[in-house]
């Protein structure tokens, strides 16, 4: 056999073997060894795109109960009517993951820390539960002669929805929601890093306002009228089943 023909053939075979080895190495880890191992920045970028595709993360859900009373008097208190409303409602604490940008994710190689700057927490709701609502009160003469009872009920519902929002925005539930959101995001970024061999890497997620006295967050709570209408539609749909 002509040696001048054999040598190019051998070289070609080696090149083909290397290409095949790289393809297999993508799965087996050989290519990582050749090119110096997986890149944490690349892993973080892939994780970021995956999270953005999820759109929204419901990090925390809490139920609150509002108890409000209204009273109306006429003729110097000779005619009175009073109504009390007990209204439960659910509030969701959400993260808009689509707002996460590449600039919000940075890798500190020296400390082996992946830092994530989270978008502001958003409050959605309250979703009032009219089925579990309770209204009490003694109408008396004033209720019989006027529409005072209906007016007081409307006042109570508006006040109750506002109170549910106020409860949801209190410091303790906001902190619980922030903790839950941070933990979920940190876990989502940490799992691919650990799987790629970065077992000592740490993910630290923070909100922009953390570390300051500013407790700002986005309030996407439902207006009173819409919250009541939505609860009525939901209750009517359940009654048709």
| Strand-residue proportion | 25-35%
The total tally of domains equals 2
Could you tell me the mean pLDDT?
77
- Helical segment count: 7
- The helix content, as a percent range, equals 40-55%
Span between termini? 85 Å
Task: Indicate the low-confidence ranges by residue numbers.
Answer: 1-5, 7-36, 141-145
SSE sequence, one letter per element: HHHEEEEEEHHHEEH
- State the shape: elongated
User: Main beta sheet, described?
Assistant: 5 strands, mixed
What is the number of beta strands?
A: 8
* Global Rg: 30 Å
- What structural category characterises the helix and strand content? alpha/beta
Could you characterize the architecture of this molecule?
- The protein has about 240 residues and is an alpha/beta fold.
- It has two domains: about 1-35; about 40-240, no CATH class.
- The chain is about 45% helix and about 25% strand.
- The strands form two sheets. Strands 1, 2, 5, 6 and 8 form a five-stranded mixed β-sheet that branches.
- α3 (about 40-55) packs across α6 (about 170-195) and α5 crosses α7 (about 225-240).
- The model is unreliable at about 1-5, about 5-35 and about 140-145 (pLDDT under 50).
Give a topology summary.
Blueprint: H1 3-28, H2 30-34, H3 40-54, E1 56-74, E2 79-96, E3 105-108, E4 113-117, E5 122-128, E6 134-136, H4 140-145, H5 148-168, H6 171-195, E7 202-206, E8 218-221, H7 224-239
Parallel strand pairs: 4-7, 5-8
Antiparallel strand pairs: 1-2, 2-5, 2-6, 3-4
């Amino acid at each position: 056999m002509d040696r001048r023909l054999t040598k190019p053939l051998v070289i070609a075979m080696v090149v083909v073997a290397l290409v095949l080895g790289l393809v297999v190495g993508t799965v087996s880890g050989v290519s990582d060894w050749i090119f110096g191992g997986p890149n944490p920045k690349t892993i973080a970028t892939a994780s970021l795109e995956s999270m953005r595709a999820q759109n929204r993360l419901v990090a925390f859900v809490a139920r609150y109960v509002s108890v409000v009373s209204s009273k109306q008097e006429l003729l110097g208190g000779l005619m009175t009517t009073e109504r009390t409303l007990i209204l439960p409602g659910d509030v969701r604490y959400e993260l808009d993951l689509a707002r996460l940008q590449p600039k919000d994710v940075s890798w500190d190689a020296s400390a082996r820390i992946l830092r994530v700057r989270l978008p502001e927490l958003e409050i959605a709701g309250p979703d009032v539960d009219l089925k579990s609502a309770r209204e009490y009160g003694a109408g008396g003469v004033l209720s019989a002669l006027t529409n005072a009872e209906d007016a007081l009920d409307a006042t109570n519902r508006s006040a109750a929805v506002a109170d549910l929002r106020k409860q949801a925005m209190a410091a303790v539930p906001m902190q619980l929601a922030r903790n839950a959101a941070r933990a979920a995001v940190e876990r989502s970024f940490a799992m691919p890093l650990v799987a790629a061999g970065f077992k000592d890497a740490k993910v630290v997620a923070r909100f922009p306002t953390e570390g300051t006295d500013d407790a700002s967050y986005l309030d996407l709570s439902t207006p009173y009228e819409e919250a009541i209408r939505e609860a009525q539609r939901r209750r009517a749909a359940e009654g048709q089943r």
